[in-house]
Design goal:
Length: 1048
């Protein structure tokens, strides 16, 4: 008995990758096949086959233009289906005639196997049969048979002159003496072209050809200097022609005219072989085997070509004709998209069609593709990409003006075209369309924002970044519930997870788990030590949330922290350990770049472009800053530690100098070591400041914190070199030093400055930094009010100066005070205050007058206490009302209101400080002691950011107002609209046959079909139930009547 064991191929997912690694085909094995972009993970197209169909295998072939699908339905044999991906004809889904059986035959010992790109059968004799290869051979033979073979009406031009004019000769007439018009009607005596001036950008006279393609002479082929066009006359409208076909040779400079080598006319068709340069020629025809795909591609190419011809137009008439041509080309593309949205997505990916439309600037067509209408709404007709599909079959001439689309995304191209000219608003509108489209769709998938990161620096020019970060997708995208958080969160963070989890950003686990023994190194030992310490901590302070599952979100900015700096390959880190250690100690790090900031990551570029703090106040930026802050903080903590040693050495040396400390032996050597250490650290910190100056320029030190950094170091070194170091002696240290009042004051003020710098360095720690920035923001908010108070004090002090500076001339008497001390003895003591009218005068000069007046805020009224004069009392009374009662209480009330606002701004200012520190650190040369993990494509985070509530309220406000990014710019422009369904009607004369759509050509079932069938079944059931209810009611009524009759 023959035993057969069928391959169990239905439980495993089916995968196939295109030859250029840009598209992946996936199927769970049952009925549905989906194509995805590998780069972004976005779905391109999905096809549902018949019910109960199992997909066994699939593969890309023929330069990724063909997909072979092996499937099985109810029959015993498997079936093969050829899916021509870039084809809009009815036979794009082509069943293969013939069946195969995928099984192991134990009698004949035949086997089948699947390897990447192959599906083979092997028999007992060792003969191998490749199913895909044999299938492709058969398919090529069938394609040759099925290739369109049209009977020519007339061979107009041919290399073989004997064939010209066969089988039918056309009536050749001259037009304007240099042009040729070919009629099929020999009764015509004068040339009558349907259209004129179809290349208005060419301002010279050149030979043209017009060829009628039908006997009605309603369709005319136009061959100009750089284009081939087909125009059709609408029969029921006089002098109304519409464009059916447009091809341009992409000679942007228009230096070479087309040369017709061969021209064959068919009934409503043609074939042309043309040449325009020695090495550039092509063949053009209509109709095409793939139906409308190639003509639509040519139409998009034409839009790109025409964009570079705009500046050559002369006169209003030429401008009008030019816009008419662009509108007609847009109609061709629009109709194709409307009828074949899925095929459009595929050819857009392969031929970069959306890019060419963006270059042309057709706002109406772009908006239709992105947002659609009721028929193609939410079809996702455009997918963002960074890596282009390079098609070797396509070539075009170079031009100085032409944009290299292979190096830029669609969004970047749209931004680069926003030049300060008359078209600026129209170009910016396209940018806002793209941003609105990407951010709206990115709520569910981060792949929609794959091109945003690289474009962010360019968006700053047009002030679109702030509004962009208030889009809902900028709160992060929550990962799917089917993903275990333990698979992506590093173990060092998993140990301490709890319900009160702090905001934490991390690089997810993306490496494959190795089964081999790991090589022991210092990095591995360090990681294990950290992990062990955290486990020990959890044992002491146990985590009671073992079953806690945190919410993990993705920052939807692709490669946001990845830079393009050249990387030095280092393999042997152990041998470089000592070198790196010495460099770290003695040589401050240099900057990797000088002026070309475009090599830095997008994060660093926008940090350097941001002039205010708006962009930092959102969850996404806070997560990125949180992730990048740790390595940057460690670097600046190293500088902080060196500064502490620097300031400590200064304090020790200057303290012994002021005290004239005498020391010998080891103590003297210790002081000498401190001096050497001070100058070494001063050199190191000064070189750091110099490299910052060289990198950023002088404007870097216009900022308060940077200025204090430089001044504190320079001042300490100068004071040490002038006063302290020359007084040091190896024999007795500072025993013979001669201190002066000036040196002591200079040292004390320098020490105060060093302490101030120390406090500012505490910004590296979260809690002190919070209070530093709160204080700074309070000063920013109240400085005008404080200045006003100082002016009031200055005015009062000046009045007292005039009134009391010379009491001997104004005959002012002082307040005399005396007291008597009575003791138990015989003697009583009488005490009277001795007052010097000049030295003890609180208004002897302006400074003392100002200080004494300022002391009113502390409750000390020296002027009134000293002088017994009515004018002093009056000014004191008036000043107290103004300064104490009004201004001081206003300041207290003002401070209470300012604090909450200062707290919010202080938090954002702290984020900006960290961001700027990250920007500085990212531009520095890296010194690593161990191999570093690459920057992640996406950053993940868990917990709620501190900025979330404020950001969420602002985002909801914008959502409630239903404001889009393009509203402001769209109001400024009035664009053409595509014809509506009612106006469009049915055009039976058109070349473009749209009698079948995406779902035709091969019987398939979409999700909508399944839903409609289900709804139909539900309706049938409802109808049957209703009929049954009616019959039951009738039967009940009859029974009631029968019972009533029996009772009677």
């Amino acid at each position: 008995m023959k035993k057969k064991k069928f391959l169990n191929l239905y439980t495993n997912p089916i995968l196939a990758i295109s030859k250029n690694y840009q598209i992946i085909a996936f199927s769970s094995g049952y009925g549905k096949l989906t194509l995805f972009l590998i780069e972004s993970g976005l779905e391109i197209i999905s096809k549902n086959f018949e019910k109960n169909t199992k997909i066994i295998a699939c593969e890309f072939e023929n330069d990724d233009k063909l997909m072979i699908i092996i499937k099985k339905s109810k029959s015993e044999y498997e079936e093969m289906l050829l899916w021509h991906l870039y084809n809009s004809s009815k036979n794009r889904f082509q069943p293969f005639c013939g069946n195969i059986k995928l099984e192991k035959n134990e009698e004949s010992n035949s086997y089948n196997a699947r390897i990447p790109g192959k599906f083979v059968l092997v028999n007992s004799n060792g003969k191998i049969l490749s199913i895909y290869d044999s299938l492709l051979i058969d398919n090529k033979a069938k394609v040759k048979k099925s290739t369109l073979e049209l009977e020519p009406y007339s061979i107009v031009i041919s290399a073989d002159k004997s064939k010209e004019g066969t089988p039918n000769k056309m009536n050749e007439l001259k037009y304007d003496n240099i042009h040729r018009v070919y009629h099929q009607d020999f009764s015509k005596k004068e040339a009558q072209p349907l259209i004129h001036n179809r290349e208005p950008w060419i301002n010279e006279n050149f030979e043209k050809m017009w060829i009628y393609l039908d006997q009605k002479e309603s369709i005319q082929l136009y061959i100009g200097k750089n284009t081939i066009q087909v125009w059709r006359k609408i029969m029921n409208k006089k002098n109304k022609c519409i464009l059916e076909y447009f091809w341009a040779n992409n000679d942007y400079e228009n230096n070479y005219a087309l040369q017709v080598l061969e021209l064959i006319v068919y009934n409503r068709g043609f074939f042309i072989k043309i040449k325009w340069k020695d090495d550039q020629y092509t063949k053009i025809q209509w109709p095409y085997d793939n139906n409308h795909v190639i003509p639509v591609k040519y139409a998009c190419d034409a839009l790109e070509y025409l964009n570079y011809q705009r500046n050559k137009l002369v006169g209003y008439d030429n401008q009008h004709v030019f816009e008419e041509i662009i509108y007609n080309i847009s109609i061709i593309i629009w109709k194709f998209i409307k009828n074949y949205p899925d095929i459009w997505k595929l050819i857009d990916i392969r031929y970069n069609l959306m890019t060419k439309i963006i270059i042309n600037g057709s706002n109406t067509l772009i908006k239709y593709i992105l947002f659609g209408d009721e028929k193609v709404k939410h079809k996702f007709l455009h997918l963002p990409r960074i890596i282009r599909w390079v098609d070797t079959e396509i070539s075009c001439s170079d031009s100085k003006e032409k944009i290299d689309i292979n190096k830029l995304s669609d969004l970047q191209i749209a931004i680069r075209l926003c030049k300060p000219d008359l078209e600026r608003n129209r170009r910016i509108l396209i940018v806002t369309y793209l941003l609105e489209y990407y951010t709206t769709n990115a709520i569910e998938h981060p792949g929609w924002l794959i091109t945003i990161s690289n474009a962010l620096p360019d968006l700053y020019v047009h002030k679109l970044v702030s509004e962009l970060f208030y889009k809902r997708c900028m709160e992060g995208i929550e990962i799917s519930n089917i993903i275990e958080y333990t698979d992506i969160i590093p173990k060092r963070y998993q140990i301490t997870l709890n319900t009160q989890q702090h905001f934490l950003a991390f690089n997810p686990i993306s490496n494959l788990i190795s089964t081999s023994k790991k090589k022991i190194n210092l990095k591995g030992l360090g990681d294990n030590l950290k992990l062990g310490l955290k486990k020990f901590y959890v044992r002491i302070f146990p985590n009671n949330y073992e079953n806690y599952s945190p919410t993990v979100k993705i920052v939807p900015l692709y490669k946001f922290t990845v830079n393009n700096l050249p990387q030095k390959i280092k393999s042997n880190y152990e041998s470089l350990f000592i070198i790196n250690f010495l460099r770290l100690i003695f040589i401050p790090r240099s900057y990797s770049i000088t002026k070309n900031f475009s090599q830095l990551s997008s994060l660093v570029q926008i940090i350097r472009l941001e002039n205010n703090n708006d962009v930092f106040n959102n969850p996404v930026m806070e997560a990125v800053i949180n992730y990048k802050w740790r390595p940057a903080r460690n670097y600046f903590l190293q500088l902080f530690f060196m500064y502490i040693l620097f300031a400590t050495s200064f304090a020790i040396i200057c303290g012994t100098y002021v005290a004239h400390f005498e020391a010998t032996g080891y103590t003297c050597k210790f002081l000498l070591f401190q001096i050497i250490l001070f100058y070494y650290l001063g050199y190191y910190l000064l070189v750091v400041e110099y490299k910052q100056l060289d990198h950023y320029g002088w404007r870097h030190y216009f900022k308060f914190f940077n200025c204090v950094d430089l001044v504190s170091i320079v001042t300490a070194i100068v004071i040490m070199s002038i006063y302290v170091t020359p007084s040091f002696s190896i024999e007795n240290a500072f025993a013979s030093a001669a201190t002066t009042q000036e040196s002591t004051v200079a040292i004390s003020f320098t020490m105060l400055l060093l302490w101030f710098e120390f406090i500012l360095y505490l910004r590296l720690l979260p809690e002190p930094a919070k209070y530093i920035y709160i204080m700074m923001n309070i000063i920013k908010e109240t400085w005008i009010f404080l200045l006003f108070m100082i002016l009031v004090i200055a005015g009062l002090a000046h009045s007292f100066l005039i009134l009391c500076q010379h009491p001997e001339f104004t005959n002012i008497s002082e307040v005399t005070s005396s007291s008597t001390l009575i003791t138990e003895g015989l003697v009583n003591y009488h005490i009277q205050k001795d007052f010097d009218r000049t030295e003890n005068n609180p208004a002897k000069n302006y400074i003392t007058s100002f200080i004494s007046t300022y002391n009113w805020l502390n409750g000390e009224f020296l002027q009134q206490e000293i002088w017994d004069f009515w004018a002093v009392k009056f000014i004191t009374f008036f000043g107290c009302i103004l300064l104490i009662t009004i201004l001081q209480n206003m300041l207290i009330a003002f401070m209470g209101g300012v604090y909450s606002e200062a707290y919010k701004k202080g938090r954002v200012a702290l984020l900006r400080f960290r961001a700027e520190s990250i920007s500085d650190y990212e531009a520095l040369e890296r010194i690593h002691f161990f191999p570093q993990s690459p920057e992640p494509k996406y950053i993940y985070y868990l917990g709620e950011s501190k900025s979330y509530k404020e950001w969420d309220s602002n985002a909801k406000k914008r959502e409630s107002e239903q404001i889009t990014l393009y509203d402001t710019y769209e109001e400024k422009l009035l664009e053409d609209q595509f014809p509506s369904k009612e106006k469009e009607g049915v055009d039976n004369e058109s070349w473009w046959d749209y009698s079948f759509t995406d779902e035709d050509g091969y019987k398939m079932e979409s999700d909508d079909d399944e839903n409609s069938e289900t709804e139909k079944d539900d309706e049938d059931i409802k109808i049957k139930v209703k009929l049954l209810d009616n019959k039951v009611d009738e039967l009940n009524s009859k029974i009631d009547k029968l019972l009533s009759a029996m009772i009677k």
